[in-house]
Design goal:
271 residues; alpha/beta; Rossmann fold; 2 domains; 8-stranded mixed β-sheet; two-stranded antiparallel ribbon; 11 helices; 39% helix; 18% strand; globular
Length: 271
Amino acid sequence: MEIREEKSSLGISYRGFLIENPNIVFVHGIFGSGRNWQNYLRFVAKEYNLPALALDQRGHGQSDFFSSPATLQTLADDLIHFLKEKVKTPALLIGHSLGARVVMKVAAQSPDLIRSLMIVDSNLEPIPTQRLSPLDWMKSVPTPIKNRSAARDQLKTFSTDPMIVNFLLTNLIEKENGWEWRIDLNGLTELRENLAQVSLEQDWAKISSPIHLVRGEKSEHLTALQAKEMIASARDIKFYEIPEAGHWCHAENPAEFQKALREFLDGASLL
């Protein structure tokens, strides 16, 4: 089974093993790309024989960079346009972190495009600027740089967590004169300021679609208290806590996350 990669008319790159008439879309978090969801695209194709897509949000992966403004609303507008152009709606949306915020905004603004949502480890509060400090780490790496090892050494001066360092390095690509970031660092710097100001409480209150809320048991991005408050204020919601996992629960405990995804898909009655 081979992955296919294409681009939308707005310059949004997407991938999938089966991509004809999809209505399942995975949306990654900040500093990520559609590749983060590749194992789950394969799972949906193999276990359900259903087409699903994972997109690269603007400024990430193979997608075009931002043109001003770089905001959460811009990303939501991109997804709305993408759904109308490439996806059979109403759709099932699975979003992690920043991707979850985008998905929530779209569900609040264009409910006719949505069948059901899977919100993975995201709260409703503005994102503190310091939480996105890896952006500054990446900007400190002088590019083009001679190799990935040199970039790794630079990033390790900021973090000793190999998972974070390796995750950031997925954005480093080899070009003719050396290795450079493919991610839109300037656009994401502007986006960071916007995310520090935007609350999603009003959007959350407007969502009418069924919601599956997923939290990593050890997550500090979506605390147990925040999850409890979100559950209490939603109309149609199911909650899953992924054991032995933090913010990147779909990567840290894929077996348990797969169970949650299976229940999400089974509940949508797609077959």
